[in-house]
Amino acid sequence: xxxxxxxxRVPLESWCEWTGNTWDKIQAVVGRSFRYPxxxxxxxxxxATAVLRLIQRYGIDPQNVGFLALGTESSKDNSAGAVIVRxxxxxxxxxxxxxxxxxxxxxxxxxxxxxxxxxxLKGALRYVSFDGRGKQAIVVCxxxxxxxxxxxxxxxQGAGAVAMLVEEEPTLFEVDxxxxxxxxxxxxxxxxxxxxxxxxxxxxxxVARVHDFPVFSGKYSTFAYLDxxxxxxxxxxxxxxxxxxxxxxxxxxxxxxxxxHLMPIQGLAFLYVRALAGSRTGRPxxxxxxxxxxxPVDALVEECRTKPDLxxxxxxxxxxxxxxxxxxxxxxxxQVAAFLRKTPAFKELLATKMSxxxxxxxxxxxxxxxxxPAWIAAGFEQALEKGLELSGEPLLAVGYGSxxxxxxxPLRVAxxxxxxxxxxxxxxxxxxxxxxxxxxxxxxxxxxxxPGVAYEPREFMIARVGDTxxxxxxxxxxxxxxxxx
Length: 485
Hints:
Layout: E1 2-4, E2 8-11, H1 12-19, H2 23-29, E3 33-35, H3 43-57, E4 65-71, H4 82-95, E5 109-110, H5 116-129, E6 136-145, E7 158-166, E8 173-175, E9 181-184, H6 218-240, H7 244-250, E10 253-256, H8 262-277, H9 283-293, H10 297-304, H11 310-316, H12 331-340, H13 344-353, H14 371-386, E11 394-401, E12 405-413, H15 417-421, H16 426-431, E13 434-435, H17 438-447, E14 459-465, E15 479-484
Parallel strand pairs: 2-13, 4-5, 4-6, 10-11
Antiparallel strand pairs: 1-7, 2-3, 6-7, 8-12, 9-12, 11-12, 14-15
């Protein structure tokens, strides 16, 4: 694995001073900072940088790569995707005296909100397992999370890319697709980016350029995340033939999609209550927890068996979904999970099952498709620094994409993981940081300009944008890239 994040950083403690938010709360819920791309960066420059780093650090033969997939929701072109990354990497390899990527290379782009990277990974795994046997695949997840200033999502912005090498004999971790669980359900307006929003009066009025701000509803999106992740985990447990409580006890570490710091914690509490509700051996623990909260045991068990139609509830809320969305679909589970999060037992569970790399990724912000793989990368590098022995240990990855879909995938640490983890470069990727002040951040955010910042680009950058629109030749809006070693 390899990582790239922009150098430009917004410390959330400073952001709290600018906006009047409470730092202690923001740090506990969101994190400590987020990265923001420079005017000459986009999702393709970040993705290409991560891929080139992967090739160089792991000594990959470019001619042996037969599949290059891009998972993103930040594409700037409605036609091309991973082939743009391929072109940038090819020219950089030439400058470095290395062969280009194989001409017989598949270059798909995968899109489903934050889950696009997981779908790209599954595509790569299937490639090396079947028609691409003997070849390698590269998956790169890259995104730019932007929100309007003053919105409830502003503090969860972020940007970055993570690249992964997929091969038949893995050196970092194995992916068990046979026992993975999938879930999806259409959730209407849950976190969307309809193209027409750019032309609606009132959209991003204070900014001087087209922004990819999403339309979203915080509570509704949280309901959808918890429900879909729960359904995917249930599907995985059925495949494995085990209970949720037993799986949690056995797994060494868990990594969830992470739009902000608190969301995976809420997810784990929600899933653990559901696991207890369906466990015979955990019945005493479950009944004691229900008693503490004052929730009827049988009613909670029955609630955990339901599969609410969130979109249907939204449409029923006032006939057209304009009342702010449906109420909590799992009210008893949510009540018990909220209590559980405050208990010493759950804090111990977090420390033993969800702490690897968690503190490090509080520096990144939301990376959308790259959020989950970035956390996994951080976990492995931190485990190496701490001298932990993970060989053969089971892990869990839970991916989620609004709209909605989720994947729960069992992983297992490879015997040679330490050598692979030593080349990830997570800390190194974070080391080159330039903190923005308020004026610099707001100007960059609103106008795509960077006044008063000494910023020397490295690796890939946008060199110019085409402006020709003639009958014989057109490149209007096409970006041309440059590699700076």
